[in-house]
Each structure stands twice: as C-alpha cells, then as structure tokens.
Write a structure and sequence with these properties.
It is a single chain. With 454 residues, the chain is of the alpha+beta class. 15% of the residues lie in helices and 34% in strands. Strands 1, 2, 3, 4, 5, 6, 7, 13, 14, 15, 22, 23, 24 and 25 form a 14-stranded mixed beta sheet that branches. A four-stranded mixed beta sheet has the order 18-17-16-21, covered by helices on one side. The protein is flat. The two termini are 20 Å apart.
C-alpha cells in the first residue's frame, strides 16, 4: 500500500551528506558537517538529458586549512559531489554529481554564502565526445551502444532502461555529440508493434537510471501515486497525497497545434534513384494512403478517453485526390541504398548489393507520427506543490483529481471529481526543495487527451 503523504510531511527533510572532493590532492569537505545549509534543490525532467541540483550554504571561513572550502580545497568546477538526502518519510535519494558552477552570493569579513550548481558527469562527457562510427540495426541498440556498450562513448556506469524499438536505422553519425544523436533517434523511433501507428520516444535521467522510452509506454503506466486537491483539511479515502496548490494550464491552443501538425499531416517523399514521388496523408494514430479517414485513436495509448475534437466545420485542403485533412507538410528525401547492411567483404558482399535499393529508414511510417505524438503529449499541463515526496521521479505516472464545480451546492456535497481534467498524468518535471524548516516537491504533469478512462 502506498504511503499517505499529508501536509505534515512538508516539514524539514534531511540532507544526510553533501561531500565535495577536490580535484587537486583529494581533500574533502562535507557541507552538512562544516557548513550551514540554506537551501537545496534537485531537478529531473523528461525534457532534460541529465539531472541537476543546487545547494546554497554559509561558510564561516575555517572549513579547510582555516580557509573557506572554495579557497581551501579549492572548488573551481568539476569537483565530485556525493549527495544523500531524504524526505520526512525517510525516502532517500543518492546521487553523484560534478560541480558545474560556483557562485559567491554574499561575502563579508565573517562569512561567505556560496551556491554550487551541479550536474551529472555524463553531461560533461557529452561535450568532449563525438560519435564517429557507423551504427547498424535497431535504434534501441544504437542507444545502448552510445550510453553503455561502447567504451569510446558515454559508457555510463549507471543503469540504463532502453525500450526496444520496432524499426531499424543505419546511420553514420558524422561526429555528433552522443546526446544529440540519442535525441535525434527519439524522433525516428517507433515502439514495438506500432510501426505506422505511433512513434516518438523521450530520453532523460533520474536518480535511478537513464531512460529511453516511447510516449505510448509512458501513458500505458499505472499511477504510482494518487493526488487530490480540494478545499477541505482532510484527504479523502483512496488517495496518497494532498496537493498544497494546484494550477491547470490547458495548452491545446488550436492554431498552434494545427501549425505544429498535432493531429493531421501530409508527408511528401522523393526517391532520387528513380524519381518516385509519393504523398501520404497521416492522422494521429494511423497512416492513410491517399484519402482521409477518421483518426484511429485506438492505436495510441491515451491517458484519457480521447484526443480533443476539432470543429467539423473547419475546412480541409482540396487536392488532386479530393479533400484531404492535413495542417502541416513535411518533405523527405528517401535514403535508399546508401548504407546497406553487411561489411561488403566475402559472402556479405552480395548481401549489400541485394539491399542497395532498399530504404534505410521508414519516414513514411515514423517521421510524422513522431511529430504528432510529441505535440499531443503536452495538451494539458497541471502544476502542483505537494509535501516532499522523494519516491516520485520524472516519467512516473500519477492520478490527479480535483473537485467538480457544482453551482448552488454546499461544499460538503462537492466531492465528485472533475471527469474532464482528472485522471492519469505523466510527471514531466519535478523539483525537490529543501530548507532547514521545510521540504516541498513541485511537479509539472502532462497528458495528451481529455476525459477519465475509468
């Protein structure tokens, strides 16, 4: 059974360890033991490659060899920091980060207030590494190679959770940075069994591991916690967390979504070998071959009942095939025969010749589907502050509910939840905030659809 988090859990958490290790001589300084902690924040996001933390503390000047830690260690940047921190319920997070920036906020004769900004080591590795080899096979294997398997690339010691992709993509990476290539592959990937029906992956890090997951997989999760926001002091039965504040942002700006191609697109592909030209009309959830039909949303894993419905009086484009439904056009040259599989030596030489006229990728079944899916996932955003809960991470699913407004009824009878906005959401961004007196968790949660499924 999930632990209930009430308002009392917003009391002080505990930074157990914040140990900085010098790059020069191995000296160490633990902010918890020798400094006075003022503020600590920790961030995760599915829109961010790595995790980020900041710590602000007061140094009285006798921390290391009768000097401040900044001068005594010294702290100049890229120092290793071992962090252990816990919420009121003793849920711990342990991470090892590197100092990215050192800022002296206040300095006088008696003390110095310092802020350290920290990121994962992999962020700095990414800026010094280039992917220079050819990658053949499934995209998910490319991500595994870049993150873990090939010692010439990121080769992280952390756990990686890479969802298998359906499609292959042979690619020469042209000395691009590792994270650039992984994020590019996110737009070219289809989950297993969904080629031509859905596409689009996300790449991010939490304190537990690196993740490469499809948007459909995120919305297929069961909720990790059930969160309620109401105007009564008690938490209703069946919920784990009571939100302290709650703000709904309907991000479904119709004109913007049409311009971005969130629900219907046109793809024009051209084969330079034989000058074959093809126009494909695609709707969210399925691929159409030339005449528009209704969107097949059953192919998508939706958080709610259905995607927002557009007014049927909005016109469709007139084309040679008839009236076609699209609001964005994408052009793509087909990559044919440039990187056929096989080494080109011995018995494999014939295999390369046989595959020389095959498409290297599947843009007609992936590209626009990924564009649509990535634009759909942020249709609705809810921002909440809850008592500190370090068991939650970016990418987790939560159930979010608020009371249904009912004019003329007393508050005691307004316990029916909002059926349009309530239901399953994905944590897009999460920030844990700690001071000596309080601990809060701020989350931004998103969903692609409206209406409660159950």
């Amino acid at each position: 059974m999930a632990q209930q988090i009430s308002s009392k859990f917003s009391g002080p958490g505990n930074v157990v360890r914040a140990e900085v290790k010098s790059n020069d001589g191995g000296k160490q300084f633990d902010i918890v033991d020798k400094g006075a902690l003022i503020r600590f924040t920790y961030y995760e996001s599915i829109l961010q490659d790595v995790i980020h933390a900041t710590i602000t503390y007061v140094d009285t000047g006798n921390s290391v060899d009768n000097q401040t830690a900044v001068e005594g260690l010294p702290i100049t940047g890229s120092e290793e920091v071992n962090l252990v921190f816990e919420d009121v319920g003793k849920q711990q997070i342990k991470v090892q980060l590197l100092v990215n920036k050192v800022t002296k906020v206040i300095e006088d004769a008696g003390k110095t207030m310092v802020t350290l900004e920290m990121n994962s080591k992999e962020l700095f590795d990414n800026d010094k590494i280039r992917v220079h080899t050819r990658l053949d096979g499934k995209i998910s294997e490319h991500v595994n190679t870049i993150l873990k398997k090939d010692q010439n690339y990121i080769a992280t010691t952390k756990e990686v959770d890479v969802e298998a992709t359906e499609n292959k993509y042979n690619k020469i990476c042209n000395n691009k940075k590792p994270f650039y290539m992984i994020n590019w592959f996110c737009t070219q990937s289809a989950p297993q069994g969904k080629l031509g029906k859905s596409a689009g992956f996300m790449f991010w890090e939490t304190s537990e591991k690196f993740h490469f997951k499809s948007i459909d997989k995120l919305f297929a999760q069961s909720p990790k916690k059930k969160i309620i926001f109401n105007d009564t002091p008690h938490m209703p039965q069946g919920y784990d967390v009571k939100a302290l504040d709650f703000n709904v942002d309907n991000r479904n700006n119709i004109q913007d979504k049409l311009q971005q191609g969130a629900y219907s697109t046109r793809l024009i592909t051209f084969n330079p070998f034989n000058c074959y030209y093809k126009v494909t009309y695609q709707n969210a959830g399925n691929t159409q071959g030339g005449t528009s039909t209704e969107t097949n949303e059953s192919n998508l894993e939706l958080a709610g009942k259905n995607l927002p419905k557009l007014n049927t009086n909005i016109k469709k484009a007139t084309t040679a095939e008839g009236h076609e439904d699209f609001s964005r056009t994408t052009f793509k040259y087909l990559d044919v025969g440039s990187l056929p599989e096989g080494s080109g030596e011995g018995d494999e030489k014939q295999e390369q010749i046989e595959k020389s006229e095959e498409e290297v990728a599947n843009p007609g079944e992936v590209l626009n589907q990924a564009i649509m899916r990535m634009n759909q996932m942020n249709n609705m955003l809810v921002s909440m502050t809850i008592p500190g809960d370090f068991s939650l991470h970016a990418g987790d699913a939560v159930q979010v509910d608020s009371p249904q407004l009912a004019s003329g009824k007393p508050k005691s009878s307004r316990d029916t939840t909002n059926q349009q906005e309530g239901g399953l959401y994905i944590i897009r961004d999460i920030c844990h905030y700690m001071t000596p007196r309080e601990t809060y968790t701020k989350i931004n949660v998103v969903r692609d659809s409206v209406g409660r499924k159950v």
